[in-house]
Amino acid sequence: MSAYKDIAWNGLWKQNSILAQVLGLCPLLAVSTSLVNAVSLGLATILVMVLSNFAISALRALIPYEIRIPVFILIIAALVTVVDLAFNAFLHDLYLVLGIFIPLIVTNCIVLARVEAFAAKNGLRAATFDGLMMGVGFVWVIALLGAVRELIGQGTLFSGIEMIFPTLSGFQILPVEYPGFLIAMLPPGAFFVLGLLIAGRNWLDARANARMREQRIHHQVEHATDHANSAPA
Amino acid sequence: MNSPHALQPETIAIKPPGLIHGVILGAFCLGFGLVLAITDRLTLDDIAARALEDRQNSLAQVIPTSLHDNNPVTDTLLMKNAHGREITVYRARKQGRVTGVAYEIFGTGYAGEMKLMLGLSADGRVLGVRVLAHKETPGLGDKIEVKKGDWILRFNDLSLGNPPAERWKVKKDGGQFDQFAGATITPRGVLAAIRGGLEFFAANKAALVEAK
User: Fold this and answer.
1) Mean pLDDT for chain A?
2) Looking at the domain assignment, is residue A29 inside a domain?
3) CB–CB of B47 and A88 under 8 A?
4) In a domain, A229, yes or no
5) How far apart are CA B144 and CA B149, in angstroms?
6) pLDDT higher than threshold 80 for residue A61
7) pLDDT band for position A227 (50/70/90)?
8) Is the pTM of this model over 0.80?
9) Which member of A88, A174, A182, A221 has the greatest number of CB atoms within 10 A?
């Protein structure tokens, strides 16, 4: 069970696809202009990651190591196309909103990275769970990025929600006279905000590490002989 | 170690698995090609039906229903536009007389072609323009969609003489229409498409409007 806890912790924080691995920047920067866009792409990404991790974990015994990358890309591209077609046919309203984002998922290298680093080496259940957790890790960061950019860029939150839920509407957070701040909506703004988020994560991690090191030193002083075992695995 | 033959065993060893790898890769291509073909087959009819609904919806947006008593989706005319491209013209009629036409127009955006539907009254005024398909940047260029902004509505009631043809451009190019923040190429492409559509109407007015 703790293996699953590790998978969750890796996906959400420690190996977070954006904050730690800094992968998938192309869709990340292009789509995080608003909270609704960001979450929409994120949800479609979760779906593709779960499917691709599942498929590749199931087929992993058949894939020779030397040609694994072309096979992975083949499978991911095929799955994204299947999702694209299925959305178009059966979830058409959602497709009209998400449609342009779905093909972008192929360019998200986090999908390939998880397939290569995890699904190809682990069982079905763990791989599927890893796809889910990595996807959720992607969503919460891109949602935060989208929210900050939308707020700074145009002073609103949830604008465009009526495309998904026609009865809802976005909120004007800052006064209507707020002139907007274009750079937040442009790719440089995405880099600035992303840089700050990564810095924030590093700061939190550094603080946690420092605290852990302090505890370890105490520990080592008490058990000076047993050095190797005191380091956490 | 430095012998010229040092590489030979490796190349020999690699060759047979290389062949097998090719076969395996081919098998995966075949398998997932099959998956795609099946998915395509299963979704084909639904996607076509959705596309038709979308077309009906977009027609209804560019030709008000009060203008016609026929069904414009089925009252069509095949014509060639100025670029030699075949387009379908949908005609709205009231008591047999053509009251408006709608057809697809095409513009080049930031990320490829944009497809729009232009609706005109019988005297050449814009009844409405809507974007059917585009690949513009989400959050920037997609403000040409009516759900993301009212930019596209500003053309309603205008015509080729109002404003004159040379003013059918974005402000940056000396015209009279606003581009929007962060995106000039997209509105420029939309304007070129509308201008082209109006010129098409002017050149083919008789064929488009005369009742047949």
Assistant:
1) 86
2) yes
3) yes
4) no
5) 7
6) yes
7) low
8) no
9) A88
d(CA A15, CA A136): 12
What is the Cα–Cα distance from A65 to A59, expressed in whole angstroms? 12
- Which residue range forms the structural domain that includes residue A103? 2-207
* Contact: A64, B24; criterion CB under 8 Å: yes
CA distance B188 to chain A (A): 19
pLDDT along chain B (212 residues), means of 10: 47 63 93 95 92 83 88 85 87 90 92 91 92 77 82 90 86 86 86 92 88 59
Q: Look up tokens 């005297």; give the residue.
A: B123
Q: Residues of chain B whose C-beta is under 8 A from some C-beta in A? A: 17, 20-21, 24-25, 28-29, 32-33, 35-36, 39-40, 42-43, 46-47, 50, 53-54, 135, 137-140, 142, 147-148, 181-182
Task: Show the tokens assigned to B106.
Answer: 């095409």
Q: Which two tokens stand for residue A5?
A: 């806890």
Count up the domains in chain A and report the number: 1
Among the residue ranges A34-38, A90-94, B15-19, the one predicted with the least confidence is: B15-19
Among the listed ranges A74-78, A129-133, B183-187, which one has the minimum average pLDDT value?
A: B183-187
Task: Note whether residue A227 is domain-resident.
Answer: no
User: Is A89 in Cβ contact with B32 (below 8 Å)?
Assistant: no
Identify whether A159 is part of a domain.
yes
Q: In chain B, where are the structural domains located? A: 63-209
